[in-house]
Structures are given as structure tokens and as C-alpha cells.
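Bug #77: duplicate submission created two jobs. Keeping one. Sequence:
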Amino acid sequence: MAEGNEHARELIGLLRLMAQTSEDESLSRSLSVVARMAALVTRAPRAGVFLEDPESGVLRLVASHGLETDDSSRVTAIAVEKQPWREGQKSLFIPRAVPSPPGRDAIPPPFDRDSLWVALYSAGKVVGRLVVQGSGAPDETTEEFLRLVAIYGGSLVAKARLYGALQRRVEELTILYEIGHRLSSTLDLDRVLGLMVDAVVRLTGCEACSIMLLEDGVLRIRKARGIPEDIVQKAARRLGEGISGRVAETGEPLFIRDVNREKGVAASHAAHYRSPSLICVPLKARGRVIGVLNANDKRSGDFTPEDFNLVTLFASQAALAIDNASLHEQLWKTSITDGLTQTYVRAYFKEQLDRLVAASLATQSTLGVIMVDLDHFKDVNDRYGHQAGDEVLKQVSTLLRRTVRANDVVARYGGEEFVLVLTECTPLVVVTVAERIRRALEGSRIRLPPPSRPSVHAVSAQSPPPREVPAAPTVTVTASFGVAVLPIDASDGESLIRVADEYLYVSKRAGRNRVSCSDPCREAALALTRAATSARPA
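Kept job's structure:
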């Protein structure tokens, strides 16, 4: 009777443990209960559950019962390939006696002796081992009971992995939905690229990601995360060059498990990667490759085939967003940029001028406007043709854009008239920049296209013989300048333009090829010059 009560208590204890594991969402805690069940069934003082890492081929202790702290910290990983049961699915008992069976030296204590190792199944595959230690050699009934406990433990592993996979899929779909919604709500190319990079970082857990767009046969990084700025600025790959160039040329995605073994990758280049695996997929839109997406340095180890498939799927959708944003950017630039000179058109310039004036007034900083008008430009058109005049305008605009800073504004204001806005600068700087441009134009030699000759079909018998078009390989042009400074000359954009235009005509009436400004502006510039001179050491 007492023995029956004892068996009943054990059975009740097992049922309670099973109920506990069914309610616990943590796999490690559930498998700890499985280890306790195995110890209870065998009356062993210690038990543990090892799961196999499919990537590294290592068994790791994930749950235990009865282990001392020192033992638990020591039993961390066991190489599967060194074990005698690596290919079998049968249980293995390691006795106390010596000599030890093959592979025993690879097992740390206390599981290296007097222990029974039972295969742990999940979805029909061995995923680990349930081990009990210190109970002696098991009988057939005990071993069968342990197999059932191992099957139960395997079902918990399958449940946890399925739940984890579902959680990851839900997270991935949530990220894709969020990014898709954001991509559909913006046509700003820079923002689209930033959203894409952030999405790949979140989806794969990588530390480094970049998007390279193809321009004139060369891939350049347009957006990146986790990559040093100097590399971003200098990185360039031609079609077929390196991993990115190869993917752009072939249009095929590439999943590299070990970059150190990849052909064509220099050791110095491979050293930049903190983890050996990387993903590079093409960005395709309208049947052509427009760039590539790179992901590397995954935080949790190596990329998986699931990561590769996810990035490839995402890239196919994201490329359409990039293409739409690029088209929008191109159309927008066309609407605000003069096609001939690549400077801003007059309407957009006025918008920018009002914005910059408001910002300068708010910060109490100085802003300068320079009006530029080419001298005797009509003579160039009359003598050499409009094609030559267009070439002069293009080269003059290039000189203007190269002279000023990136945050300054250059626009074509009229036929041969340009206007510049210089932000956060002193009157001395504005006048100095205008004079620098004047001297650069005066000393330049602009190469013209070959002169066009009149068509023979346009000449009748009564027409006078066509005059010979003189050869004009180069030409020199000069310009007149008018300067106005905020707040010295005006307090709003329209007034600034009017004042600068007035002094432009002062320059023309005074003989052209000169810079003119108001007396207060000139006095302010001279005062700054005198202050700078007196501050110099003797």
C-alpha cells in the first residue's frame, strides 16, 4: 500500500510538472522542468538538457537540475562531431569504469561518467540530448520512460521554435507594413533610402547596411548605416568590380557565407567585415538594375538563408520606391533648374531668397546678393552664333557655381544675367567674392564650338554671297556686378534685388567690367579690412 502511494505521488508530481511546462512560455524554464522530470523518474541527483546549434555543430546546455553553480558554468558546450553518438539516435550510457568510451574526454564533468544520454527529437529530427547523471545503469523500463520524457521535451522545443518563428514572421510583416506605408507617403529620395536602410537593419539585425545607386556605370553609396563616413564618400565600384559591381552586372543576388573564401575579394577588403557572411542584392526597376543593397556584420552571428530571402524580397519592392522617388527628384530638379546652365530658375530663386532673408533676420546675420550681367554678350551671338553664346553661358555658370559654397544660391535671372545669394557672410566677403569672380572671368579663355555655316539650300541666286564665318576657338568675356547686403541696403528680398540691380547699372555706366555697391556697404567692408589689418602682429 505504501509503495502504491509512493508511485501515485510520483505520478501526480509528473503530471504537475507537465502542467507547469504547458503554461510556461520560456523554453529554458520548460526544459528545466523536463530535467527535473527526468531526475524524478530515474532518482538521479543531476539532469540536463542539451540543444544542438545547427550552425556551429555544438551542443549547449540550456537547462539543468541539481547542478552546482561551478558545474553549470563549466558545462557550456560540447562539440557534436567528437561524440560517439553523433550519427546515431540510440541512447548512450557512460559508466564510471575506465577506460572511457570514445569521445568521453570531450564531455566536461559531471556528465562525463555514470550518465545516460537520450536523443531529443523535434519534428522527426534529433535536436539535442536529455542526460541524467548519477543513477547508475538504467533498466529497460527506466530507459523507455526517459525516451518518453525526451519526446515530450522535443515537443516543447518544436512548440517554442514554431512560436518563435511565428513571432519573427509577425515582426517582419509588421516592419514591412510600416516601411511600406512610409515609403508610399513620401517621394523624397533621401528619405526613401533612409527608410530602406533602417528596415534592413531591423529585419536582419545587421550593424552595417548601404545602398549604392548606379550612375554613369559607377556604383556610389547614397545612404548607409554603420559605415565610416570616409568610406561612404570614397566608395565607388564599376560594373563587374568587386562584390557589388558583380551583382549589379549580373542582376543576381549574392549570399556569401565566408567573405574570406570569396574569389576576387582582397584580404585587406575582407578585413573590414566584422563577421564573414554578407548579403548583396540588386535593385531592379523597369527591367534594369538601378543599384545594389548591401548588408553585413550581423550582430547575432552569421546571416541565414531566411535573412537572404527576406532581403531579396524586400529589395524587389523597395527598388520601385527608389525609382519613383528618383523620377520625382529628376522632374523636380527639371522644374527648378535651368536646363542650359544648371542653375536655379528665377521663380525658384525668389522662393529661396525669401526663405534665406527670413532666416537671416531671425538670426541677425548678414546676407549678400550679387547681380552679374555679361558685357557685350549680344556681340558673341551675332558674331559666332547662338550655339557659341550657349557655350559661354554654360561655362560662366560653372565658374559661378564653383566659386561659391554649397549652401549659397546661384540662379539665371535673365538671358545673360545671373544672381547669387551668399549666406552668413560679411560685406567684405560679398564684395571680395564679386571681385574674385570678375577677375576670373576677365582672365578666362572660353573655348567655343566650331562655327556653324549657313545651309546652301537657304541661299538663292539673288542672295548676296554669304560672308565667311570667322574661326573662333576661344573668346574672352567680362561682366558687370552689382552688390547689395542685408541689412545695410535693404530689409527684404525684393528690395535687395532692386538695390543690387541699380548698382549693376552703375557698373555698366561706369565702363563695365567692375563691381559696384552702396557707400555704406563699401564703408563696412573697408572697416572690416582695417580691423583685420590692425589685428595682425607687427
